[in-house]
Amino acid sequence: MGVYGVSFEKVGRIHKFSYKEELLRGEKIIAESEFGIEMGEVVKVFDNAEEVEKVIIKKATNEDIQRYEQNKKEAQTALGISKEKVLEHSLPMKMLRARYTLDRSKLIFFFSADGRVDFRALVKDLAMTFKTRIELRQIGIRDAAKLVGGIGMCGMQTCCSRFERDFKSITLKYAKVQQLMINPAKISGACGRLLCCLAYENDTYLEILKNIPDAGQRMRYKNVDYIVSEINIFHKIVKLQAVNGKSIILSFDEILKNKEDQECDLNS
After folding, report:
1. 156: Cβ–Cβ under 8 A, 6 or more apart, which residues?
2. Are 14 and 41 part of one and the same domain?
3. What is the dihedral of CA 92, 97, 99, 105, to 10 degrees?
4. How far, CA to CA in Å, does 162 sit from each of 10, 146, 147, 149, 167?
5. Each residue's pLDDT tens digit, 149-184
6. Is residue 211 situated within a structural domain?
7. Domain annotation covers residue 213
8. What is the DSSP letter of 60?
């Protein structure tokens, strides 16, 4: 019995499933997702064989794969029809993606909207058109950007649509730590939210700034009290301002050595 990480989308969340046989990364399987019976891909093999409630039904056969590919094509056609239906019903929503379960017992539509939308009449219309159970799921602006994809300001495909499986909580603290200009246009992605890539190097910046005083903090150096007026993480220097107006510049190494000396004096 092995434990495997399964994703039902190209860059979707990873779900833990168990299976009685050995599986390899990249293998297609059939399992039950939150939407129903679907085909997924093994993207991770866990070393610890812990028990999980979800169980893989079987390995995908060639017939399953062909059905999945056919469902993808027909879901794309269904998406186009759904957009026309939205216009007919004059609803303030944007259809982004359609997805059939493998057994075609359900057709799921993902959409974005600024607020709540009364789509009951639309659901009835879609159910009559496609002769199957319809589910409409509203998603947030970041998930919408992930589905649609696009090119980031770096010139590459957006991280969320290329490899980022889980969205992290990004705050302005990340930009401040990295000494970036707090300009929304410069540090926001296509979704209008703060760039996901701000999180990639944040731990490195925090490690570099470890034990370095923040701007505005007081510190004592060679028996003179100073206030930290500026920190330059790229040159690894700190500018200190004394009460009498005198300013000095110290390197991070000098700041850390000064801290060690003061701690030694206190312990001696």
Report:
1. 162
2. yes
3. 10
4. 9, 9, 10, 8, 13
5. 888 888 888 888 888 888 888 888 898 888 888 888
6. no
7. no
8. P
3-state secondary structure of 194: strand
Number of domains in the chain: 4
| Per-residue model confidence as pLDDT tens digits over 103-124 | 999 999 999 999 999 999 999 9
The percent of residues above 90 in pLDDT, for the chain, comes to 57
Among the residue ranges 49-53, 55-59, 148-152, the one predicted with the least confidence is 49-53
Q: What is the strand order of the sheet 28-32 is part of?
A: 15-19, 2-7, 37-46, 28-32, 58-59
Distance CA 253, CA 67 (A): 63
Domain boundary at 205, 226, 258, which? 205
pTM of the model: 0.76
Taking CA atoms, 95 is separated from 49, 83, 120, in Å, by 40, 6, 15
Question: CA triplet 117, 123, 128: central angle to 5 degrees?
Answer: 160
Residue 128 shares a structural domain with residue 73: yes
Structural domain boundaries, residue 109? 65-139
Pairing mode, if any, of strands 37-46 and 28-32? antiparallel
**End-of-domain residue from the set 40, 60, 80:** 60
> How many residues are there in the chain?
268
What's the mean pLDDT when you consider all of the chain? 90
- Yes or no: say if 42 and 29 are a contact pair by the CB < 8 Å rule: yes
| 122 and 173 belong to one structural domain | no
Report the alpha-carbon distance of residue 155 to residue 146 in Å, rounded.
16
